[in-house]
Specification:
7-stranded antiparallel sheet, globular, Metal Binding Protein, Guanine Nucleotide Exchange Factor, Chain A, 0% helix
C-alpha cells in the first residue's frame, strides 16, 4: 500500500497556485450530503492549509443561495458569498466564489469554496476535515495530508 504524500504548507508558493484535484470531496449540512465531487481545485498558499473549490454542479439543487456582502483577496480578487441550505438548515455565508477572478485563477471562476467549520463536516477521500483555527482563514481544510504550523490561529497573523 502506498503511503499518501505529506505536504508542508511552508512549501506552498506565494503567490498561491491553483491545482486540480481528483479526490472525492463531500460537504454535509443538516445530516445531508449537499455536495460531492471528484473534480475540485486546491488553492495552495504558503502557511495555509489548502482551500478546496468545487464546481457548482457538485451541489444538490437548492443547496446554494446568494448572500449579501463580498470580500477582497489580494491574489484572487472580489469574492461573493452564498448561504448553504439543506432543508430547514441554513449555514449563512458559509461559502464563497470568485465570479471573475484575477489572472492566474481563472480555473476557479464560479467554483464554490466552503468553510468547514460552518457545516456538519467536509471530507476529502473519506477523511473528515479539521477546520483551520481562526475566522480569517476559515475556508482552509486540514487533513492528515498537510502539516503546519498554520497561520490563522490567535497570535499568528503577524507571521
Amino acid at each position: 500500500m502506498t503511503q499518501p504524500t505529506v505536504e508542508s504548507v511552508w512549501d506552498y508558493p506565494r503567490p498561491p497556485r491553483v491545482e486540480p484535484s481528483g479526490e472525492l470531496v463531500e460537504v454535509v449540512l443538516g445530516g445531508v450530503t449537499i455536495a460531492s465531487s471528484t473534480t475540485s481545485w486546491r488553492v495552495l498558499e504558503t502557511s495555509h492549509p489548502p482551500t478546496y473549490y468545487l464546481p457548482r454542479s457538485a451541489f444538490v439543487p437548492g443547496a446554494l443561495r446568494d448572500a449579501v456582502g463580498s470580500s477582497w483577496c489580494e491574489w484572487k480578487g472580489q469574492a461573493s458569498y452564498v448561504d448553504l441550505v439543506a432543508g430547514d438548515v441554513v449555514a449563512a455565508r458559509a461559502a464563497w466564489f470568485y465570479p471573475t477572478p484575477s489572472a492566474g485563477f481563472e480555473e476557479i471562476a464560479g467554483a464554490i469554496a466552503v468553510m468547514p467549520g460552518l457545516v456538519d463536516r467536509c471530507t476529502v477521500d473519506g477523511e473528515v476535515v479539521e477546520p483551520q483555527e481562526g475566522g480569517f482563514y476559515g475556508g482552509c481544510w486540514i487533513t492528515s495530508r498537510v502539516v503546519g504550523p498554520f497561520k490563522g490561529a490567535p497570535g499568528t497573523l503577524g507571521w
